[in-house]
Write a structure and sequence with these properties.
By secondary structure, this protein is of the alpha/beta class. It is built from 22 helices and 14 strands. The strands form three sheets. The protein has a six-stranded mixed beta sheet with strand order 6-8-9-10-7-11. α6 runs parallel beside α8 and α18 packs across α19.
């Protein structure tokens, strides 16, 4: 969507009701501060002064000593000797100018002592040097020559900038001029290419903004029963869920002016600029009513007042927030100006901003569920050439907790990968690789891993995959790989059967068993422990603490909350826990980790052969899907070439292509033999 100015502005924006040019519609303020003639005169004076200064600098005489001056005068090298004030100047004759020392500019001067002027005059007369006495400049002339250019420059700065800022500051902002004017972007339906049909996966939020659009198009329909239009709509959601996209779709659907601005655009280094911009924005919006104002990332200026440490000075952000509160509260029922704001930090907003009457509606834009992800993928897949065999349902099921921005990135990365591989369509493998790239990072296939370390990684991931395969309470296994990706040296990925908004205790304990399995398999097959399990330990401790301290799932600790509020400010007191309770919590966390560790150890011991076979297959093939893991667990052959076989086949193919590209030498032809294609004679 292009951010262009609206071509069909209303007359109120270009002229007032009397037809005269208004503050915004007329000519811009003159750079001369309203006095152009005087400004041009000063500019011409400055140009003349600069020319004179350059001329004086170019014609400046070279300083020499009295003895050198006497020598040159006796030799007849000087002419036009003048004595003025406390110096003597002379011109070097042209025929010897290049030979005279110190005569680089053609003129020389000698500084004299005022009390010895008579002596110098007598000596010049004795030498027979003709000279003239020139009157000295008065004090005023000297001052003008010395400080005149500086004064001209200062006056020009004043008329060009200071007065221009004053005249431009006739509206909001005063001396700050354009600083006090809003930096919004104005667009209309013709300039927006995004429509509500391009927004998927957030149907409830679309319904909310659809009502707003309907009111702007037909306000009398809602006023028939005495209803009041909502003054503000606050879009709340995680980053990438589609808040800004939804606002752009409103701009595309509503045939009204759409003022778009970011919360950070209100704040400047000058005090009072933010509040001035707010007043200017709402003033223009009321003149263009009905219209929509969209404030992106409003938490930049809408944070709770008085919650931070202050040095006692003037808080620019709070003054900006106060201006927003006053302007939103000053709406009349007939203004038809609706404010839409978005934020992912609604917990830090000031209560006065979120109360009814300002932001009447708070629309939550959630992470898409499997149905929403399917719709989002379908919207983005329309722009890409997809293979007929692509299963977007499978991709939607394999992308839990992906935002709309993540899903768009998956489709885009898949299209890029397919293009680099020279494919005509995006295939399912490209989508799977793009999904893993967005979630875990790019695979590092070129990373050289030592064979011993490769075995350790294979046993580690085989342990995770074994628990995921045999544990009934865990999520189903999707694939396992020992190819480094991102910061991980390998990974065992599971594919949730459905979206889960709540987790059971059995599922959390199964996640603990999966986390323990990597260390258990390493110890079982190598007899040693490795640092690669640090991430598993961190995850296991977090789950165990959450079971006891947040979810109240421990019988001994009970149905109590002991974790700190994540939104608690640093200076606020947290949860106070006695020493006895803290020890009880530690004992429960240790018990849960120990019991799940023993369960995981017992499960891997029961399926030791399958785990070892899976590790060996990982060493050979590096990546295995669930179907291939299922064959290994059942003892069936894979029927899949190993990585070394694939590399050898690729090498042989490359050698064959290179051999075919080399031109073959032509065979030697017998001179007596007939040319190729000649017919034999009848004889």
């Amino acid at each position: 969507m292009t951010d262009q100015e609206r071509p069909n502005q209303k007359p109120s924006e270009d002229s007032d009701k009397n037809g005269k040019g208004g503050k915004r519609g007329g000519k811009p303020p003159s750079l001369m501060g309203g006095r152009g003639a005087l400004g041009w005169v000063l500019l011409a004076g400055l140009a003349v002064a600069l020319v004179l200064m350059m001329s004086n600098a170019r014609n400046a005489a070279d300083a020499i000593t009295w003895q050198e001056f006497r020598t040159m005068a006796v030799d007849g090298e000087l002419e036009e000797v003048k004595m003025r004030e406390s110096q003597i100047t002379a011109t070097v004759k042209e025929d010897i100018e290049g030979e005279a020392e110190g005569a680089g500019t053609g003129r020389v001067r000698v500084a004299l002592h005022r009390e010895q002027i008579d002596d110098y005059t007598y000596e010049l007369n004795q030498l027979g040097v003709e000279f003239t006495n020139e009157p000295s400049n008065n004090l005023l002339t000297t001052l003008l020559i010395t400080f005149g250019p500086v004064l001209l420059i200062a006056l020009l700065i004043y008329f060009f900038f200071i007065r221009a800022m004053r005249s431009a500051g006739g509206g909001p902002g005063g001396m700050l001029g354009s600083f006090g004017r809003s930096r919004h972007k104005l667009m209309n339906k013709e300039h927006s290419t995004i429509m509500l049909s391009d927004v998927a996966g957030i149907e409830e939020a679309k319904d909310e903004v659809t009502e707003i659009i309907e009111f702007l198009k037909n306000p009398k329909k809602f006023q028939r029963l005495g209803g009041r239009v909502p003054r503000g709509v606050l879009l709340i959601g995680e980053p990438g869920c589609g808040k800004t996209l939804l606002a752009k779709a409103v701009a595309g659907e509503a045939d009204v002016p759409f003022f778009s601005i970011s919360g950070s655009d209100f704040v400047e280094m000058f005090v009072g600029v933010g509040a001035s911009r707010v007043r200017d924005l709402f003033k223009q919006a009321k003149e263009s009513a009905p219209c929509i104002i969209f404030m992106d990332e409003i938490d930049a200026v809408g944070r709770r007042r008085g919650s931070g440490f202050s040095s006692g000075g003037h808080d620019e952000r709070e003054q900006t927030l106060n201006a927003i509160l006053v302007e939103m509260d000053g709406f009349e029922s007939s203004d038809q100006v609706i404010v839409i704001a978005s934020t992912n930090r609604s917990d830090v907003l000031d209560p006065a901003l979120t109360r009814p009457g300002r932001f009447d509606r708070q629309v939550h834009v959630p992470m898409p569920d499997i149905k929403g992800r399917m719709e989002i993928l379908s919207v983005h897949a329309r722009k890409v050439k997809m293979s007929p065999n692509v299963q977007l349902e499978k991709l939607a099921r394999g992308t839990p907790m992906f935002s709309g921005a993540d899903l768009e990135a998956v489709i885009n990365e898949a299209a890029i990968a397919a293009t680099l591989l020279g494919k005509d369509f995006v295939e399912q493998d490209d989508l799977e690789e793009a999904r893993d790239k967005v979630r875990y990072g790019r695979s590092r296939k070129s990373a050289k891993v030592d064979e011993d370390e490769k075995k350790v990684i294979a046993y580690h991931e085989a342990g995770h995959a074994t628990i995921l395969y045999y544990d009934e309470d865990s999520e189903p296994l999707h694939k396992v790989t020992i190819i480094p990706r991102g910061r991980a040296l390998g990974s065992a990925m599971w594919l949730p059967e459905k979206d889960r908004r709540i987790q059971s205790k059995r599922r959390l304990l199964a996640d603990l068993r999966v986390a323990h399995a990597g260390r258990i398999a390493e110890e079982l097959f190598t007899g040693d422990q490795y640092t690669g399990t640090a991430g598993d330990i961190r995850m296991a401790n977090a789950i165990a603490k959450a079971i006891v301290m947040e979810y109240g799932m421990s019988d001994k600790v009970g149905f109590r909350l002991f974790s700190d509020d994540p939104n608690r400010q640093p200076w606020e007191s947290g949860v106070k826990i006695s020493n006895e309770t803290a020890k009880l919590i530690d004992d429960e966390v240790e018990r849960i980790i120990r019991e799940t560790y023993e369960q995981s150890e017992r499960m891997i011991g029961e399926h030791k052969e399958q785990c070892e076979a899976l590790a060996e297959a990982l060493i050979k093939h590096e990546t295995l899907t669930y179907e291939e893991v299922d064959k290994i667990m059942k003892g069936e052959p894979l029927g899949k070439p190993t990585v070394s076989e694939l590399l050898e086949a690729e090498k042989a193919k490359k050698e064959a292509e290179e051999a075919a590209a080399v031109p073959k030498p032509e065979p030697e032809r017998d001179e007596d033999a007939p040319p190729a294609g000649a017919m034999p004679t009848p004889a």
